[in-house]
């Protein structure tokens, strides 16, 4: 089994296009593991291996169900648990988008949530996927105090809705 290839197939099915393989996700993004395995023609052991050994903690298993933790491009919002964020979070982006973000704020774009990191290094790596990286510092404490809801994607990913530019600055 090619773990990377299966992880990508699972991501597409659970984050972007479940209907393509005949899956239905509930409001929190869950579907039965057996249904995913049947749709992708893989074993439960293979799926469990991807979940257990995936470097980015993209997936979650519970009670015979599976879901992607973050990165959804489906309409609406997959319900993720809210949490108290650290005082500061980081967002990595390409240099060409920084001025617009600092003027207009952060928006999910094609995703359901804005993705933030507790690590400046991780944010820099994310930004590098889109060109010359720039890291923005997010005043999560102030945003949360003003009513922004932060959700836990995994140990390296925090999720939120739109963020006003007053909570952002260059690293």
From TrEMBL:
Keywords on record: NAD, Transferase
Keyword Transcription regulation: no
Family matches, as PANTHER family: PUTATIVE PHOSPHOTRANSFERASE, TRNA 2'-PHOSPHOTRANSFERASE 1
InterPro entries named among the record's database cross-references: Ptrans_KptA/Tpt1, RNA_2'-PTrans_C, RNA_2'-PTrans_KptA, RNA_2'-PTrans_N
Family, per entry: Belongs to the KptA/TPT1 family.
Name this polypeptide is given: Probable RNA 2'-phosphotransferase
Domain of life: Bacteria
EC number: 2.7.1.-
Enzyme class: transferase
Record's function text: Removes the 2'-phosphate from RNA via an intermediate in which the phosphate is ADP-ribosylated by NAD followed by a presumed transesterification to release the RNA and generate ADP-ribose 1''-2''-cyclic phosphate (APPR>P). May function as an ADP-ribosylase.
A Pfam entry, by short name: PTS_2-RNA
